């Protein structure tokens, strides 16, 4: 019997698309005027949805950015999950991070810059910062079985958890470092380059016996 998950239904895809639209609207407003000056009503209006639709999906205005913050982590885990079991772990982590944070077009660059605005806004907003840390914690937990599969069951569970935690923090620190800078979405100071650099420092020895 196949264990592959069923593809999302049309309703689920529409729900996810609406949630992401709301997240982009919230990120844009937070980045330009700050979370304190932004209301849920403004976010809903910018996203083109009713306020009741906003609250159907999100508990607070800060929570509304969750889909935007999780997109990159989900893509990174998906790329790692596609790697062959037994692949050298260090190179696999770096390659997946570089691809997940790549900026192939203007739309991707715009989304990344909105994330920068969010991370800057989170510095002065504890609730928004809590969302960012929660997203990273959940990403770390979901990364554990992916790492275990990549090691083909050969790694100690403690080592697997340590790698998942270190790799997640490497991406987080890369994003926060970039957000504090004026570097562009591509180039030496971009998130992809910083993530690879962080991962090389933390897990570069994993591909050596």
Can you give me a brief rundown of this structure?
By secondary structure, the chain is mostly helical. 69% of the residues lie in helices and 0% in strands.
How would you describe what is shown here?
The protein folds into 2 domains: 10-57, Arc Repressor Mutant, subunit A; 65-204, Tetracycline Repressor, domain 2, CATH 1.10.357.10. It has helices spanning 10-33, 40-47, 51-57, 66-81, 89-100, 106-122, 126-150, 157-179, 191-203. Helix 1 packs across helix 2 (40-47) and helix 1 (10-33) packs across helix 6. 69% of the residues lie in helices and 0% in strands. The chain contains 9 helices and no strands. By secondary structure, the protein is an all-alpha fold.
Topology:
Blueprint: H1 10-33, H2 40-47, H3 51-57, H4 66-81, H5 89-100, H6 106-122, H7 126-150, H8 157-179, H9 191-203
How far is the first residue's CA from the last residue's CA? 36 Å
Order of helices and strands: HHHHHHHHH
- Spell out the CATH superfamily of the largest domain: Tetracycline Repressor, domain 2
What is the highest CATH level, the class of the largest domain? Mainly Alpha
Tell me the fraction of residues in β-strands, as a range: under 5%
